[in-house]
Design a protein that fits this description.
Blueprint lengths: L19 E2 L4 E2 L3 E3 L12 H14 L4 E7 L20 H12 L4 E6 L12 E2 L13 E2 L2 H21 L3 E6 L4 H6 L14 H4 L1 H14 L4 E9 L8 H14 L3 E6 L19 H7 L7 E3 L6 H9 L5 E4 L1 H5 L3 H6 L17 H5 L28 E5 L3 H12 L3 E5 L7 H5 L8 H14 L3 E3 L6 H6 L4 E4 L3 E3 L12 E3 H6 L7 E5 L3 H11 L5 H7 L34 E5 L15 H10 L3 E3 L2 E7 L2 E6 L2 E5 L3 E4 L3 E3 L2 H8 L4 E3 L11 H14 L1
Parallel strand pairs: 3-4, 3-12, 4-5, 5-8, 6-7, 8-9, 9-10, 10-11, 11-12, 13-14, 13-16, 14-15, 16-27, 18-25, 19-20, 19-25, 20-21
Antiparallel strand pairs: 1-2, 17-26, 22-23, 23-24
This protein binds NADP nicotinamide-adenine-dinucleotide phosphate and iron/sulfur cluster.
The site of NADP nicotinamide-adenine-dinucleotide phosphate has 21 residues, from helix 18.
Length: 688
């Protein structure tokens, strides 16, 4: 079958490709690009770039896009300079977005988000003056008069969205933002008509929907994002969720979207460790309570998983946000039965959320063009060049892919198989999806006819005589060797050997080095055949929903801290060690570091800082811990103390005058990370 002529009817994903009639309008399929703040919303010329970003996703076939959050008021902004829509003078730039998307018969809704006490500025407001554990700013309690004004402000923003041409709005009522703060009793301790009983606490959400509907009329989509699982003990009970959902429908919402967990709760909801479609059972539970369509979400990153959610009757629509950063053509590829060519989101948060929290523009670790479509357009290079790439870890793969995409003739060599460090990451429990990135690049190189030589260690002699416009060295890293007495003892192994031989590892282990890889290795050692039920139990999620908030206990909830003592003993004794005298994992990524620390603590891993290493012998690892001599009687010492660059070819090639470039870990092993490596590969390919 000619893939270019294939239509939605020919797709294997029949549930996903089915249109949805909303009465006054129709969605062409069941796939929604969920709200994702990119940071372009606040950049100079950002809306132009945002239009290119959305345009590429609309062209890729998605039925409906929900924008990043826009506040209806100044105090509701996430930070002082965050986006707001409340003035008609702002409409021109919004029209650009809408126009770019409508060309492809894709709908677009503006998300209205009031941060409440999550606002990172001193003008924060909330239901009550109770500070959030994840913000330094205490909010002021809104007066009754201010609440009325706020409802009008929501409606005003929705009216402006309609004038800009949007097909609808999404009212953000979940994840612990303002509306959620009114709903839950721990954050709403008001005595007036907006607090006290549940009916009073949901009044704000319902008044907002009613006022928006009154302002925009019937033929306009109103999506309400409902917190269906608060994941804290003061959260709503299931009967309250049902009661609220019915009232939302009655108030005039067109669709209800699923929200899971509050941002301040220490239970993972979107990270790599969360199983696929881990929360769609919650949406399904609500299906019998309402008649309007429901959207499900969280950790759905492939057409297969999305299709099975719909097939299973979990929801009417599926929302994915990060998967559209990873691959703008997700829907088209699903439609053309080419899901093997989808660049899967690996849920790492490194390129997207972690960057947004640092005030940087979001992009994607596996797709560095995301939100940079304007800077890196998909155009061929004016001149076809011959590019040799040595090393096909992710830096080399990325460079080979983008160079070939731009029309160059690419020949690539790897001494082993493709994927480098990602193959090791893929062996860590919960990170298996990393292997999909290797699979994706491999499939693309094959499509683009890149000449790939595996298990081929090309040497200087061959490279000296080869013709090339450019040689790219992406030869990666090797584990660092340490200068400790007894380092050659049989109990010592580097992380690469340990990961590749994990089944041979005995019960007592010391890990030297507590960076990303030390944490990964510790996670590997403590995880034994964990299944999905164990996962819910580990994180205290009550799937029977008998308890408020759907959570079994509240050991770390709403504290914002993860310094709890261990609660489970593990079959293995694991010591994770570092020389620095500071909390272990302090420099792990903001949105996922706490999960990794908590996971090890829950399993009873001994995390020790302020260590100096003395020697290794038959008695184990001898250390000084806070100045005191200690011997850790272990079977293995696994070294995760960083890397050294594999760059010997670089000097040699330079010396013989070949046009050579070096990228990724081969260039800089210190602080090497996959996001930088993949980006460097692309940026260099655009220079050719
Ligand atoms: P790393 O983050 O640099 O950590 C190296 C660890 O080894 C540190 O704990 C360091 O702490 C210790 N160390 C360094 N030199 C040492 C020496 N000479 N003797 C003893 N200990 C030494 O490196 P990595 O863990 O290998 O990770 C490499 C890169 O991959 C990093 O950028 C990391 O962020 C990334 N990565 C990320 C993830 C993720 O999930 N996001 C997972 C894996 C890797 P002390 O100096 O205090 O002892
Ligand atoms: Fe997904 Fe990671 Fe890309 Fe974010 S950076 S979209 S989590 S792959």
């Amino acid at each position: 079958m000619d893939k270019d002529n294939i239509s939605a009817q020919d797709s294997y994903f029949t549930f996903l490709m089915k249109p949805l009639n909303l009465g006054f309008t129709q969605l062409k399929n069941r796939i929604i690009m969920g709200s994702m703040h990119t940071g372009l919303e606040e950049c100079w010329n950002g809306f132009h770039k945002l239009a290119r970003f959305y345009e590429e996703r609309a062209k890729g076939g998605v039925a409906l896009i929900i924008t990043g959050g826009f506040s209806p008021t100044f105090s509701g902004r996430l930070s002082l300079f965050s986006s707001q829509l409340s003035n008609f003078l702002q409409l021109a730039k919004h029209r650009k977005l809408v126009k770019a998307v409508h060309v492809y018969d894709t709908k677009i809704c503006l998300q209205i988000l009031h941060a409440g006490r999550y606002a990172y500025h001193p003008f924060a407001v909330s239901a009550s003056a109770i500070k959030s554990p994840i913000s330094p700013f205490a909010p002021k309690a809104l007066t009754a008069k201010q609440i009325k004004k706020l409802i009008n402000a929501y409606a005003h923003t929705a009216g402006l969205a309609k004038r800009a041409g949007y097909d609808g709005v999404e009212v953000m009522g979940s994840e612990g933002y303002l509306i959620n703060q009114f709903i839950c009793s721990n954050t709403n301790q008001r005595q007036d008509e907006w607090g006290g009983s549940f009916e009073n606490r949901i009044r704000l959400s319902l008044e907002i929907i009613r006022e928006i509907r009154r302002t925009v009329g019937e033929n306009f989509i109103i999506i309400y994002r409902l917190s269906m699982l608060d994941l804290h003990k003061d959260g709503s009970s299931w009967s309250e969720i049902e009661q609220h959902a019915k009232a939302i429908e009655k108030a005039g919402a067109t669709i209800i979207n699923t929200g899971i967990g509050w941002h301040e709760v220490r239970i993972p909801t979107i990270a790599t460790v969360v199983p696929d479609a881990a929360f769609t059972w919650v949406t399904k539970k609500l299906k019998q309570a309402v008649t309007i369509p429901l959207i499900t979400s969280n950790r759905i990153n492939s057409p297969e998983v999305a299709e099975s959610c719909l097939q299973n009757g979990d929801a009417d629509l599926v929302s994915m946000a990060r998967p559209f950063l990873a691959d703008s053509q997700f829907v088209l590829k699903a439609m053309q039965n080419q899901s093997h060519l989808i660049n899967k989101c690996i849920a790492c948060n490194q390129g997207c959320l972690d960057r947004v929290f640092k005030g940087q523009r979001a992009t994607c670790l596996v797709n560095p063009r995301a939100a940079y479509e304007d800077e890196y357009p998909l155009v061929k290079s004016a001149q076809v060049k011959t590019i040799i790439i040595v090393g096909l870890g992710v830096a080399g793969l990325s460079c080979a892919y983008y160079a070939a995409l731009r029309g160059h003739h690419v020949i690539a060599y790897d001494a082993g198989n493709l994927g480098g460090q990602f193959n090791l990451a893929g062996e860590i429990p919960g990170k298996e999806v990393y292997l999909d990135t290797v699979r994706y690049f491999e499939a693309q190189l094959s499509l683009l006819k890149v000449e790939v030589h595996r298990n081929y260690k090309i040497g200087i002699e061959e490279l000296r005589d080869i013709y090339a416009d450019a040689i790219v060295l992406a030869t990666g890293v090797k584990p660092r060797k340490l200068d400790i007495q007894g380092f050659d003892h049989f109990s010592v192994m580097d992380y690469e050997t340990a990961i590749k031989n994990k089944s041979t590892i005995k019960n007592k282990v010391a890990i030297i080095g507590a960076g990303g890889i030390g944490f990964d290795v510790a996670e590997m050692l403590i995880t034994q055949n964990e299944n999905n039920n164990d996962w819910y139990q580990k994180w205290s999620i009550d799937r029977s929903y008998k308890s408020r908030g759907g959570v079994l206990q509240d050991e770390v909830n709403l504290t914002g801290k993860d310094d709890t003592n261990s609660e489970h003993e593990n079959a293995r004794t694991v010591y994770l060690l570092q020389r620095k005298n500071e909390k272990l994992g302090k420099n792990l990524a903001r949105t996922t570091g706490w999960i990794r620390r908590l996971s090890l603590r829950k399993a009873g891993v001994n995390m020790m800082s302020d260590i100096s290493y003395e020697k290794i012998d038959d008695f184990g690892l001898h250390i000084l811990h806070q100045g005191k001599k200690v011997t850790l009687a272990v079977d293995h010492v696994i070294v995760c103390a960083g890397q050294q660059s594999e760059n010997s070819l670089y000097q040699q090639l330079g010396a013989i005058g070949q046009p050579v470039h070096i990228i990724g870990g081969a260039k800089k092993a210190a602080e090497l990370d996959a996001e930088t490596a993949i980006r460097e590969g692309m940026v260099l390919a655009y220079d050719f």
